[in-house]
Description:
- The complex is a heterodimer.
- Chain A is an alpha+beta fold.
- Chain A has helices at residues 13-24, 36-48, and strands at 2-5, 29-33, 52-58, 61-67.
- Chain A has 2 helices and 4 strands.
- In chain B, the strands form 3 sheets. In chain B, strands 5-8-4-7 form a 4-stranded mixed β-sheet. Chain B has a two-stranded parallel sheet with strand order 1-2.
- The mean pLDDT of chain B is 91.
- In chain B, strand 1, helix 4 (98-109) and strand 2 (113-117) form a beta-alpha-beta unit.
Amino acid sequence: MATVDARGLSCPQPVILTRKAIKAGGFPIEVLVETVTSRENVRRAAEKLGCRVDVEATGNEFKLTVTK
Amino acid sequence: MIYFDNAATSWPKPPGVAEAMVHFIDDVGANRGRSAHRLAVESGRIVYGAREAVAELFKASDPLRVVFGHNVTEALNLALRGLLHAGDHVVTSSMEHNSMMRPLRALEEQGVELTVVQCSPEGLLDPAGVEAAVQSMKKLNRDAAHLIQQVGANACTDITGFALLGHGYEMAEKSGVRLRFHVEQLPFVEGAVQYADEWLFPGGTCKNEQAYEHKVHFAPTIPEEMQQLLYTPETSGGLLVALPADRLTRLTGLFADEGRPCWIVGEVTEGEGVEVA
């Protein structure tokens, strides 16, 4: 289980951090973001790496759970 | 993961650091520049010695041009905010510390153009990517503009923050025409298409898409990654020029003679908006 806190970071930082975590393994990976843009970019990038992504809205933020 | 906390902070300190601090507190104590009493002069000597050592390290010609900050974060903010103005370009890497990125992002909001060169997931920077990006950004539009003026054009725009599609739309809209780009004719900087395939887009891509998507039509064969790439902000994306077809050969000939790049990327048609075929 790994957590990527990408809140407050501008794209493509959230994507880069998520990709790093995916390459390191350690699923499931939880990614926290604050904007729709970041949410969509992280989701697409993770799916491109063959992962499954579940998205949960938590208040003003989003939590993406990435699994292999 | 193990956090070594040895970049912003380091411990233990080199020998002599603790002694120098104790010496100052116990035996010197005064602020430099406060009159010419013995302790103030000694304090001044210590600071000036540090100034000279820093100048020596960086091979600076004048120790008086060394500025001491409270810490690296403050010093970076002083340097960046003091140096940069709207219209300046900054090239940095995607691995920078917050103390670099946050002031740069704040300055970006004020009109400083920022290129972040992507590092691999392993944290490595491809120098070829940096070199290509820097060379592309350093190229002034001035020379291309002079060549275009020799031939004459109907319209011209630079390609920057609104990307090819945004600036292309603005030009089309003001002229009451439609632009059609042919995707296979579009030039890309080394690495761009690969990064697009990995879905590494800046936040500005999304903003441009939201602003222009209703004015842009993509052929169904164009992959989403390519669509995003064409919405991606440019720091210095060259000039897009529209001119009568009978002057095309003269223009490309002029550019070839001068050894300057020039690509034919599409045509102007009746209608409105932008089409990517």
